[in-house]
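Quick one, probably user error.
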């Protein structure tokens, strides 16, 4: 447990948490919507600092990040709680947790950084639940990682206030942001949040050195209409440009949306074509196997630059400085001279000295 960073007194005996747009106002003993930021006496605390729901070594493409050190491994972990209320949450056992005893692994930022080096991981990812709500822990861990030459990755819904946003992403090397839909009605009905703050986060990231990609989980009948996808593509083109990779992924029934059918592969193919038709250069398909949905093409000449098969790198044609070998076009992203070869493994680990 540690004192929280972003809060202030509001003058009526309550303290306001300033981490996210919910701006929960708490009396002594109360917890915020996320459950893990709480008031104790005259201060707010983060109750999950240094405590994790578990660690795994994953392929970086699983975050998903296709243009950030392809083929390398990432040490992934989360804590508990969430500041969104997504009815379709696929990590609900962690993000909806209301029992902090679920957090079995204790790890300091230094231990996480040292473990990433020992495990051969190129980066550490704050994922499974949103790092926005454990930002103090994520920031300290990212700083410790940077001291050891390990990159830091945030997997987030982007529902965060400006001051916390600036502090968090200042120490992140990469991020994947869930753009869960493109209407206020969807956000309010299905996530209990609002669209605008997420768009503000994406626009902010476009002004930073943090590499970022977007993911949209397509839920049949809820956020997969042609009109909504076209509107999303037009906004991304106008505000972020054509080179931000966009992952459209398949929903499977979970949490409180078990009555909705899985997303057909045809829906992802249609979404990919719509987004590409609006001008996006790099649109990927996730949670299904489709050759064209996994390949990175040169946006200028169409050459296959990186071919994948479910997280395994099959072809890597980039030059040393990240250019297409045929036409010289730069592929936006962060690349090594050669790709990693971690492949599709998922390795649970326990950290210890």
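Nope, works fine. Designed sequence:
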């Amino acid at each position: 447990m540690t004192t929280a960073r972003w809060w202030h007194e509001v003058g009526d005996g309550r303290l306001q948490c300033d981490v996210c747009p919910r701006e929960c106002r708490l009396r002594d003993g109360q917890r915020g919507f996320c459950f893990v930021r709480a008031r104790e006496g005259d201060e707010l605390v983060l109750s999950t600092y240094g405590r994790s729901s578990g660690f795994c070594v994953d392929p970086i493409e699983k975050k998903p990040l296709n243009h950030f050190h392809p083929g390398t491994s990432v040490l992934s972990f989360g804590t508990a709680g969430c500041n969104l209320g997504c009815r379709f949450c696929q990590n609900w056992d962690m993000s909806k947790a209301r029992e902090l005893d679920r957090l079995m692994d204790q790890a300091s930022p230094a231990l996480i950084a040292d473990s990433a080096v020992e495990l051969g991981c190129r980066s550490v990812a704050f994922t499974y639940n949103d790092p926005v709500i454990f930002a103090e822990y994520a920031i300290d861990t990212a700083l410790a990682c940077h001291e050891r030459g390990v990159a830091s990755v945030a997997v987030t819904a982007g529902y965060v206030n400006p001051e916390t946003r600036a502090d968090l992403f200042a120490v992140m090397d990469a991020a994947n942001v869930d753009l869960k839909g493109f209407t206020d009605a969807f956000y309010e009905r299905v996530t209990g949040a609002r669209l605008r703050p997420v768009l503000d986060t994406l626009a902010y990231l476009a002004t930073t050195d943090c590499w970022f990609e977007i993911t949209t989980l397509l839920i049949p009948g809820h956020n997969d209409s042609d009109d909504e996808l076209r509107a999303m593509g037009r906004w991304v083109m106008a505000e972020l440009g054509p080179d931000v990779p966009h992952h459209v992924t398949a929903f499977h029934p979970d949490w409180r949306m078990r009555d909705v059918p899985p997303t057909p592969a045809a829906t992802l193919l249609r979404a990919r074509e719509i987004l590409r038709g609006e001008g996006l250069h790099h649109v990927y398909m996730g949670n299904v196997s489709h050759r064209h949905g996994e390949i990175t093409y040169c946006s200028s000449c169409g050459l296959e630059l990186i071919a994948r098969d479910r997280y395994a790198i099959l072809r890597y044609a980039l030059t040393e400085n990240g250019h297409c070998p045929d036409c010289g076009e730069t592929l936006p992203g962060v690349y090594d001279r050669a790709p990693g070869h971690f492949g599709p493994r998922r390795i649970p680990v326990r950290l210890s000295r």
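Residues 226-239 form the longest helix (14 residues).
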